Amino acid sequence: MEKYYRKNLLYVQMLAENIPDFRLTASPYALGYVPGAWLKGIQVSKGASSVKNGYESITGQIDVEYLKPDDEQGIGLNIYGNSEGRMEVNADANKHITHHLSTEVLVHYENSLADMDENGDNFFDKPDVNQVNFHNRWHYHKGRYIFHGGYSILDEKRDGGQLKSIENVPLYKISMDTRRYNAYLKNAFVIDPARNSSVALITSATMHNLESQFGSKVYNNDERNLYAQLIFETDLGEMHNISAGLSVNADRMSQDYLQTKNLDENETVIGGYAQYTFNYDDIWILMAGLRIDNSDDFGTFFTPRFHLKIKPLDAFSMRFSAGKGYRSPHALAENHFLLSSGREIIIENLSQESAWNIGSSLSWKIPIAGKHLKINTEYYYTTFQSQALADYDISPSKIVIKSSDERSYSHTFQADAAYDMFKGFELSAAYRLNDVKAHSGGKLRVKPLTNKYKALFTASYKTPLAIWQFDANLQLNGGGRLPDYFNENGELVSDAEFDAYPQLNIQITKWFRKFSIYVGGENLTGYKQKNPIISAANPWSETFEPTLVYAPVSGAMFYVGLRCNLFREK
Hints:
The chain is an all-beta fold and 570 residues long. 1% of the residues lie in helices and 62% in strands. The strands form four sheets. It has a 22-stranded antiparallel barrel. It is globular. The two termini are 40 Å apart.
């Protein structure tokens, strides 16, 4: 059984075109709400990012950029199906109504047509997902005024659990019904083009409703969010730039857990920031910023951030960053998938999370045989003053969600290299080493279900005239620690670790003038976790544990897809 949630990126701030998004209840599934066919690009920042977008970024930031209404007119279609019964249809269309006004429609439909149980444990290997996602975007630009706006509607149903009952025991079912609505407006006015002076007002509103059930446990959440930001930017000469702004973020959550009311969580944060950038001919770039925010739950706090880039040579550059980040934890909203466990869930008082992040990177371009070998190394260190943890280690029969001011930290080192062997053929390799520890079960331990390392090797070849494209990647996932647990016989298993495992993915694409066909496979090495659900035969027992999934639970998967561009150049 695959996890009924995606990897929770709580300490990585998610943005949708520079607007904070996919927070709170949406955070475990954030990337699942962003169809890949809709993306124009994705920007990933590691470490402490700019204070402009708020205080929540601790270990990094992911900003998704959608296709634009003012892109070339036309219709795009992407149809996908795989051997596990999943099918998708994605469509995008944009129209230039006038020279100044354009609009775009994005549509995504996803459905699971088969109930997979490769390991024969009578549980869904992966949840059946039925999702409809709609997005309408508008763009207007005339003179010095620029407007972006749009709204989105998402309806998703996830079903999992047991496939059939055994000996008249009720089925153990998991269901999550999500309805999400979002609208945003961006208004910008260029005051002085010569000095890059502008003022912008960004607003967004989100409603997120979740109705879920994990066996006999019911959790419902009706979430509301309002966000607004006023930004002013200007150059103070050729090398100096300043940005300043005010923001307000209001979260309202009405929760129902096991028919227990009065679980409302409300917070309003009002703040402001100032950021200075010094750029000397792209050789020295320094950015320093400070935020001051006030939360009606946690009071006033300060967020400093600092970035430095030095590029003494075209072939070499250095980066350094340091900064602090904060986050307001929400025990059930962000961890409701833990309710599938047979362990008792205990929630203690939670306090605001805070952490420092320091990092640096070095980049080289080394000429070899008329081409450049690109090498990058980076190191980031995060240390928490306060961290909210789902602690498995207090007792194998409990999960305690609590705040801890004991030492928790992570060291991450990564090295990667890329080289164009010949025209159209590129090789790359990356290795990341993780040392992540948190104070759980009364002492400092390696964080469970965290890989010790990851290695990635990729090869890509595109034939002349871009008629064929071949892509392959091999990923090695290092082992890690499992928390103590009771096995299906009720015996305590302590100090267990999971092994490293490989995954191979391959895709072949054939390009035509107006369309392309692609076929591929994932997890072609066929590695599967042997026992993804503990006590699968007794889902109503305290030893039932489906949340300790660290690897694929199904073997090789094959897929085929079709991309079309109608009335649009390739």
